[in-house]
Amino acid sequence: MSKVTIDAFRVPHFKDKTASEGKNGSFKLASYDCAAKPFSAGGKDADRQQLSDLSLELDVLQDRMHAQTRERVLLVLQGMDTSGKDGTIRAVFREVDPLGLRIAAFRAPTPDEIAHDFLWRVHRHTPAGGELAIFNRSHYEDVLVPRVTGAIDKGECERRYAHIRHFESLLADTHTTIIKCFLHISKDTQRERLQARVDDPTKHWKFDPSDLEARQYWDDYQAAYEDALAATSTPEAPWYIVPADSKTHRNVMVATILAETMRTLKLEYPPAKHDLEGIKVK
Amino acid sequence: MSKVTIDAFRVPHFKDKTASEGKNGSFKLASYDCAAKPFSAGGKDADRQQLSDLSLELDVLQDRMHAQTRERVLLVLQGMDTSGKDGTIRAVFREVDPLGLRIAAFRAPTPDEIAHDFLWRVHRHTPAGGELAIFNRSHYEDVLVPRVTGAIDKGECERRYAHIRHFESLLADTHTTIIKCFLHISKDTQRERLQARVDDPTKHWKFDPSDLEARQYWDDYQAAYEDALAATSTPEAPWYIVPADSKTHRNVMVATILAETMRTLKLEYPPAKHDLEGIKVK
Lengths: 282, 282
Known about the structure:
Two copies of one chain form a homodimer.
Chain A: H1 44-68, E1 72-79, H2 85-92, E2 101-105, H3 111-114, H4 120-123, E3 132-136, H5 145-149, H6 154-172, E4 176-184, H7 187-199, H8 209-216, H9 218-232, E5 239-243, H10 247-263
Parallel strand pairs in A: 1-3, 1-4, 2-3, 4-5
């Protein structure tokens, strides 16, 4: 195992007292190197082996949680286009029984979703007792996109941060462990990956011209992410910065964060409800 | 119109500073007379006429809101068994187009509902833009029943009050006007109404022996209501005490509160989206 700890990549906890400043002190997104591989085991082969081991462990942990039907886990994945949200889910959960997973992807809101508050559509997909839910994009889109496009002002954005903190506190109060990962890629990496989608016919379906438009606002999105992560990283729902220029490293790190967190939940198969001693099934 | 104002029956607003005391100063449920008829127009006939007028006005207000698709109204009805929640809905909305109403009744939670936080099941029934939603019982059951049965302790109850305030603040921030009515009946009135359910074969279906069990905890429920109303009456989601021993008065008063509130929303039919001048439909 690597000696680096996941704590070093946790966004400092939001403190109410700094709310009026709108900033979380020292946190700077740019200070994290997208190309770093702090959780790499040394090489690609070793990393793949580690990922495989972690995925198998996640399957065991998830199975115990499912049997216990008490704890819930919510993994939120956010990141710029091409940061690898889909790929992360595929790789990290390769060995995990899909019966115990609840994966929800959030795209541009529908008219019915727009007609409600911005947490309405995500609330219904939160995990039930024993479930591991994965949000591929999430309610955080609603403090990123409308902020960059100017659809909401600073005051509304701050109110939404508060609504998010309260909402996640409600979930945490009901045995929900929340883990939020920002898949951190460089602007160069995005260029390469978008170009690959243009050049490779099997990736054409993933390309949307609007991605190029969003790319023009790269700096604005980085700033919006920096503020949103700072305002919503809490002890009960922390954000982690995942260097994600390397796909292998990204997968290992997300799997590590999830496994380390789930290990603390004391997940055990529950005892038998009846005295089973001596029972012979005929 | 009566000279009494609905403000006189609004539960004083919860103030954070008194949270540590767990009490909302002067508010006492017992100080409200269940048999009072402050909104009566004088007699039964006059009251029925007034209710009819108000219901017709609510239909107009609701139609404008539906056309505007911006404002949302949420009416929460709570009260002891036989306090008349069903009857209120039937009488107040007699003249209102059911197409614009969304009525949700909440009974004992299902296993799927229990497996989530207590606001999960109500959030999905909150009104969309242009809708008037009515909650027949609500998320308040979860700070009443488990408190009286001892399923949750005082600390958990206080946390739930806070979750409710935050949740209702989220809704209010999205153009939702929240009106909460406590239908206030006396213990004697409940006895008469439960006895009628026993004696009248057409009301047998409404009788449940567990109602008699809950009646044994009458004082505990009154205390639980007093605390819950005090902790969750806010400027954006006020509680009203509705004297409800008289069914006619109860209906007139709920209709009055709703109409007075909706009149302040500046509901107007929106202007034409196109220049309609001179268009002749052939």
